[in-house]
Specification:
- This protein has about 270 residues and is an alpha/beta fold.
- About 35% of the residues lie in helices and about 15% in strands.
- The chain has helices spanning about 40-50, 90-105, 125-140, 150-160, 180-190, 205-215, 225, 230-250, and strands at about 15-20, 20-25, 30, 50-55, 80-85, 110-115, 145-150, 165-170, 195-200, 220.
- The chain has a 5-stranded parallel β-sheet.
- The longest helix has 21 residues, at about 230-250.
């Protein structure tokens, strides 16, 4: 399969990931759910090197539950951008309410991650509701990073609505199945004018590397790190995997040449020839 390079950034050689006008050095984004406690969350986030850390407003306390353990007490706000998300929302109205609350809790922050789910079993996105929520939130001044199906048509629709980043799934949330349809991702990457980040389905470091080699601008993950046998060590592995994939993408792989065996060393100039 021939995959075209992603031209969503004007300068693909830049080291920075630019979303809604803000530059980030790390292209790995991590979640904060499913850890044993906030201490493990903090250790894994630090090991990942991630600057953008996403939090489910309906599941993790960032001030909406006074008196209870608060994630903001363990994360350094000078080093991390907290990205509120709408995990657990199944309608556009639910998602919009959650992100309005997040904006109040985070002193007017507008960068958010939208996800509107279709059902509790697969957690596949409900795209009609996602589009409706995105339109509302963009009009209200939010910078929307949006979880979506790996459908190039609907990805373009979300971009046309004004979303700041498109985040197609690699496979189902929490499945660890990796990238099951690289062809669809390549179509999204080929046409996108905003950053494209794989969201959901990454299971191990090689999955993250493949996503970056395809030309994705970044990868967001939670379960792959939090549910690893050693989350902190896996967080470090994911950091290196994303960096390696990005370097390989920028370097440009050699062409595949099936049935054309060729010696690694040239025959010309061989001693005794």
């Amino acid at each position: 399969m021939k995959v075209k390079m992603n031209t969503s950034q004007k300068n693909p050689d830049t080291n920075s990931l630019v979303i809604a006008g803000k530059a980030f050095h790390s292209r790995l984004l991590v979640g904060t759910g499913k850890y044993r406690d906030f201490a493990e969350t903090k250790a894994a986030v630090e090991a990942s090197g991630a600057e953008i850390v996403t939090v489910a407003i309906r599941r993790v306390n960032i001030g909406q539950e006074p008196g209870k353990p608060n994630l903001l007490d363990v994360l350094d706000s000078s080093r991390h951008t907290l990205l509120p998300n709408t995990a657990g929302c199944f309608t556009a109205e639910e998602a919009a309410r959650a992100l309005r609350l997040a904006r109040e809790l985070l002193d007017g922050q507008t960068l958010v991650k939208l996800e509107v789910l279709g059902d509790e079993k697969t957690l596949f996105p409900n795209m009609p509701e996602t589009l409706r929520a995105a339109e509302t939130l963009v009009k209200e001044g939010f910078d929307v990073m949006v979880y979506c199906a790996d459908d190039p048509i609907q990805a373009r629709m979300l971009e046309d609505l004004g979303c700041a980043a498109i985040m197609p799934l690699a496979s189902l949330i929490g499945s660890g199945m990796g990238i099951v349809n690289p062809w669809n991702l390549s179509l999204i990457l080929e046409r996108a004018r905003v950053p494209v980040l794989v969201d959901a389905g990454v299971g191990t470091a090689s999955d993250a590397t493949v996503a970056m080699e395809l030309g994705c601008d970044g990868v967001l993950m939670n379960t792959a790190i939090a549910c690893a046998q050693n989350p902190v060590r896996m967080a470090r592995a994911m950091k290196l995997a994303v960096e390696a994939g990005r370097e390989a993408y920028l370097a440009g792989r050699m062409p595949k040449k099936p049935y054309r065996a060729e010696a690694s060393s040239p025959a010309a100039g061989k001693i005794g020839a």
